[in-house]
Amino acid sequence: MNYKKRSVCEFIITKIDHIVEHIIPFFDKHHILGSKHSNFLYFKRASYIIKNKEHLNNDGLGLKEILQLKGRITSLTQIRLWIITVLYYFFYYFIYSKKK
Predict the structure, then answer these.
(1) Where does residue 53 fall: left (phi above 0), alpha (psi -120 to 50 degrees), or beta otherwise?
(2) What letters, b where the CB count within 10 A reaches 16 and e where it falls short, cover 37-66?
(3) Measured between alpha carbons, how far is 11 from 31 in angstroms, rounded to an integer?
């Protein structure tokens, strides 16, 4: 990402294991406040469904549950903003906690 007036970091996650082992425990410990907390709970549940490969079952129940969870977050824009916010706080914490 290129921004001329501010420095920006890009944090890329390529494995569901990283979400389950690092991102989710971080936000279980450092709670998100407000309406984003319920979105985190939906994200957390969907992550565990994917981690356990329940979304690949022939009965389709895992996939159906993920779609229901996604539907609870009202728009794709909100999903993107929520993920960006989550990653921002996660990354911010690690940058500034190591400087102290």
Answers:
(1) left
(2) eebbebbbebbebbbeeebeeeeeebeeeb
(3) 20
**In one letter, which amino acid is 20?**
V
Cα–Cα distance for residue pair 61/31, rounded to 1 Å = 29
pLDDT score of 74: 59
Rg value, the chain, Cα: 15
pTM tops 0.85, yes or no:
no
Return the amino acid letter for 14: T
| Residue-by-residue DSSP string for 59-79 | T-HHHHHHHHHHHHS--HHHH
d(CA 82, CA 77): 8
